[in-house]
Amino acid sequence: MTSTRDPYSAEALARMQALVEEMSEQTDRGVAIVGSAWVEEALHATLEAFLHPESKAWKRLFEGNGPLATFSAKIDLLHVLGLISEIVRADLHAIREVRNEFAHQIAHKISHAKLGFGSQHIQDKCLALKCVAHERLSDPREAFIRACAVLNADFEMVRMFGVKLPDAGQVIASIER
Question: Which end of the chain has fewer beta carbons closer than 10 Å to its terminal beta carbon, N or C?
Fold first, then answer.
């Protein structure tokens, strides 16, 4: 488990700047992988901020082949905990799907064309991301990068102002009272 960072610390701002610079220098494949890793890291840190810090259980659940080790599982867990809306859940799954396509395929399955943010199915997913719909972006790569940045910032705010779930109430044995 890592410690929760202050989203406005010099370290956090330097990290964000490094990530933005890294993505600006990447191919489309690199942007999809780096951007989604950035978001998945934010999901992981958010779960960490809200859940009880039990390192052995954390390792069993969130590392290796643990049931909550995948991007998809983290998204769904945040949703069932009520920490994200259905719209944010759908956007996160779209980002995950774009990442998976770039990470696991060399070319489009049917047309065999090179994958890129200009590929129609990827373009459609990126331009449909609701978290940046208000920006009316027409470039799918820019929409993907902006969605990753916006969601990362949103999760930083949730962690900054959130309350650990155990503080909200928990089931205890009579002997513990």
Answer: C
